[in-house]
Amino acid sequence: MLGFVMARNFLKQIPVGITLIELMVVIVVASILITLATPGLQNFIRNNRVTAQSNELSSLIAYARSQASASVNGYQLIKTTGSDSWTVEVQNLDCSPACVVKQVTFENTDLTAESGSLPLIFNDRSVLSSGEVTLAVEHEPCSGQRQRAVLNILISGSVRRTFESCSGT
C-alpha cells in the first residue's frame, strides 16, 4: 500500500504542458520553413496564372475559328489594353460595326505578338487570314522558369503552346 501512495505522489509532480523555450523553438522553426517556402509558392502561383490565361486565350481562338465557318465575313480577335490589364474580344464581322461576342479580361500578364500581328482574323472557311502568328503570354514581372507561354497559331487555326522561362533569366 505504501508503494501505491508513493507512486501516486510521484505522478502529481510531473509537469503538464510546454515551456516557453519549447514554444519559441517551434515558432523559429516554423518561420524558417515559411521563409524558405514563400518564393516557391509565388512562382507556383505565377506559373498557374500564365497557364490558365494561355488556356483561356487558346479557347477563345478555337471559339472564333469554329464560329467563323458559320458566318459570312468571319470572326476576329482583338486585344485592347487597359490601365493594369488587357482584354481579348471575339468579334463577329457580319455586324456593322463588328459585334463583340465574347470578351475576357486578363490581369498581371502581358500579351505580345512575336511574329505576325493582331488582330487575328478568321475568314468564313475558318482559316487565319493574316498567316501564321506567334503570341507570348508572360507574367509581369517575368522573373522565373515557366512564366512564359508561347502560342503558335497556324494558318489552319490550330494552336500549339509551349512554356519557357523568361528572357534574361
TrEMBL record:
The keyword Zinc does not apply. The chain crosses the membrane at residues 20-41. GO terms for biological process: protein secretion by the type II secretion system. It is found in: Cell inner membrane. Gene3D superfamilies: Glycoprotein, Type 4 Pilin. It is a single-pass membrane protein. One of its GO terms (cellular component) is type II protein secretion system complex. Its main location: membrane. Coiled coil: none annotated. Belongs to the GSP H family. This is Type II secretion system protein H.
